[in-house]
Specification:
single chain, alpha/beta, eight-stranded mixed beta sheet, two-stranded antiparallel ribbon, 9 helices, 14 strands, about 20% strand, disordered N terminus, disordered C terminus
Amino acid sequence: MSFRSRKDGVSVLPFPGRSALAAVQTAKPLLPVLIVLHQETSTPGRIGNALRALGHTLDIRRPRFGDPLPETLDLHAGAVIFGGPMSANDSDEYVRREIDWIAVPLREQRPFLGICLGAQMLAKQLGAPVAPHPQGHTQIGYYPIRPTEAGHAVCPNWPDQVYHWHREGFELPAGADLLAEGDDFPVQAFQSGHAFGFQFHPDVTYAMMHRWTTRGCDKMDSPGARLPHLHFADRAVHDVAERAWLKQFIGSWLKRMPMSIMSEAAE
């Protein structure tokens, strides 16, 4: 059987029926996801790949370099704030602006995800303190986490160990649900309404790990940090489970947009 291709390069069977033609003609593009990054060379990594695979485009903003943040998320399916070497306690204008801006997805009940620094910003927006470990411990490399009953309800099959790169942690915000806990940094994942915060880095690809362990080699002497070769040895053991779990989580996370809003966005 021969195939023909549409202009967008997608192969379709020849002579589709009327219902198939109608589906092609009436399909509406999905709303983009807002991506907030903090360095010139930063990428959304594996989370960006998962969002693109679901059909979403990425609206990438870097407030640190002057990019504005939208006043509403009416034109977005959700938002993700990623990590960075800065602290949520820094006095820089863009840090304060990002923390204040998180009130937008909270108010509009849009899916929000904070990764490491982004999770710490979410915690501060919700009134929880962010601070270094009392004994100066860090988590740089793979460390175990323990999902709670609430965590299993949100998404099953959590990985036993996940990748970290941080020296600060946060307390559980008032009214939030603890999804996963750890040892040196007890709060590893939490949920508040449609907003989620992960202290760890499920976004890190193999190439990103190479960059981080090379450019951040001076951090390997920090208390509790894993040596560079252990990052890759542990990745070989734990990455398959973390990757599968993240794909499942991202799919369910975007479905948390209220149905009334989804209907309005499709019109």
